[in-house]
Amino acid sequence: MMISPETKLLLRKLRRNRLAMIGVVLVSVLVLATVLLPWVLPWDPNKMDVRNALQGSSAAHLLGTDQFGRDILTRIVYGGSISLRVGFYVTFASLILGVGLGALSGYVGGMTDVVIMRGMDALMAFPGLLLAIALVAAFGGTMTAIVIALTIVGIPRFARVVRASVLQRKESDYVLAARALGKRPTVILVQDVLPNCIGPILIQTTLKFPTAILGEAGLSFLGLGLPPPAPSWGRMLNEARSFMEVAPAAAIYSGAAIFITVMGFNLLGDGLRDVLDPRTQSARR
Amino acid sequence: MLKFILRRLLQLVPVLLILSVLVFSLVHLVPGDPVDVLMGEGHTDPVVEAVLRAKYGLDQPIVVQYFTWLGNILTGDFGSSLYTKEPILDMIADRFPATLLLAFASAIVAIVISIPAGIVAALYRGSLLDFGAMGIALFGISVPNFWFGILLILFFSQMLGLLPSMGYVPFFEDPWTATKHLIMPALTLGTAMAANLTRLVRAEMIEQMSQEYVRTARAKGAPERIVIGLHVLKNAMIPTVTIIGLQFGGLLEGAVLTETIFAWPGIGKLAVTAVYERDYALIQGVVLFAALVYVAVSLLVDISYRFLDPRVKLN
């Protein structure tokens, strides 16, 4: 793949952005941990051992055990793969659908634009989590249902961002030139307009990821995620609530896992925004 | 002004129509027949089934069902809960004050934290203060509010025994006890909003401070206190007020989790209970109500924006 000089410059700027690099490191460590640690850890995430329930941290169980004697670290690691998968599917699906609808709306204009954008307005009027709850309640707690629910909530923002930047680029000289050359509208949209909207799309993508992870955690916290014994972080946190007085560890660690993951992606997203949109720079670069 | 408001209301019509179709189809997405739920398990009497179908209009074509439903909604009839048989609008009206109190308290928490923090961060840009404020904002944006709430309970209720870990007392019955119950939920719900607002206030201040009018004011010798306090702050607050309004609608969303953690009897908790009881009519009602509140708040924000910023043309 050829890397353009602009991309190289951006990458160099991103590398110099300290907070973004912390984000990159956090995210990479997380991904590596969820992929590699299951091979290393000796425990089964769902194997119960009631005699060793609610133990504190020890050499055998680094973060202790939960109410069924399951190893908390192992469950957090396996839970990470649920969170990251949901985050990935939801972000990818909202990206594809949102970019499609937004580009169509911005480029075609007219009635198409009005219909799509009013639909997006209507979707945005729903409190996101409430809509997701209602959808998951209707479809049942499966991976597909969770992903569909969170995607529906995620599309409008993508569509708006893309529409706005397509509108901005539509009348630029290179698009007019492409039109004068007799290129077909779809070709212009894909070849000339969308590649120039990549900045805002990229920022929205990195910021969608943590929102999706928080959404899944929220759903499973309410008991609407994957059914037990799936070790999703939200469910672990909710189950740990009942034992908080005797053993706060599970509640603290499972929540911390969500927090650190979300923060990693937010740092990365903020860094990208600093690099791509210098108007909104954060405190230190 | 009146013309603007009318036009804005007219624009809402298609949005509200789409919204109503979405909410209506929500219940029809549910796998299975609502009549089965109404009849209870194991009952298969075809006569009873036919009666129920006729009673709830389920024997009508779906389009007819939609318009009947829409007509009922427009006359303020949200239907009844499948579980308690209570009118849904009454159930919502019962819980809404608690949610409203929580939302207001959270907004106050957010405003009290974010405006000073954002201003200080912008004035001392690049300093440790700025770095600290932005670090806390990052924390606020990343922390899952249900975890933060649990940590607060762990610290203030279990370890220090200072605050009650759950429950709700109406504010006007006993303001002191009510406030004690309100502190942790409001902090939990207000954190994310505070974080977003701090970033926004900082960005707006920085943006305004680089404007020409600031240089002019300084050049004619206006003291810094006036330049910042009068000119910059006023202009930075216009978008801030808009966002406060819009985020207020968003507080309803966070209320679902916050109310669950603190056993706060608002509409968020009502929605969660409805889900557990598979009370689809009630879920439908709450979702519709929350969306309507959001639309109404956005409309108010839009109108007040025109008042605050005379540069925004009314037409």
UniProtKB/TrEMBL annotation, chain A:
Residues 84-269 form the ABC transmembrane type-1 domain. It is found in: Cell membrane. It comes from the Bacteria. Pfam families: BPD_transp_1 (PF00528), OppC_N (PF12911). Coiled coil: none annotated. Its main location: membrane. The chain crosses the membrane at residues 20-41, 86-108, 129-155, 246-269. InterPro entries: BP-dependent_transpt_permease, MetI-like, MetI-like_sf, OppC_N. The keyword rRNA processing does not apply. Belongs to the binding-protein-dependent transport system permease family. This is Glutathione transport system permease protein GsiD. It comes from Thalassovita gelatinovora (Thalassobius gelatinovorus).
TrEMBL record, chain B:
CDD domains: TM_PBP2. Pfam families: BPD_transp_1 (PF00528), BPD_transp_1_N (PF19300). Keywords: Cell membrane, Ion transport, Membrane, Nickel, Nickel transport, Transmembrane, Transmembrane helix, Transport. GO terms for cellular component: plasma membrane. The chain crosses the membrane at residues 12-30, 100-124, 136-162, 286-308. It is a multi-pass membrane protein. GO terms for molecular function: dipeptide transmembrane transporter activity; nickel cation transmembrane transporter activity. It is found in: Cell membrane. Residues 96-305 form the ABC transmembrane type-1 domain. Gene3D superfamilies: MetI-like. Belongs to the binding-protein-dependent transport system permease family. OppBC subfamily. This is Glutathione transport system permease protein GsiC. It comes from Thalassovita gelatinovora.
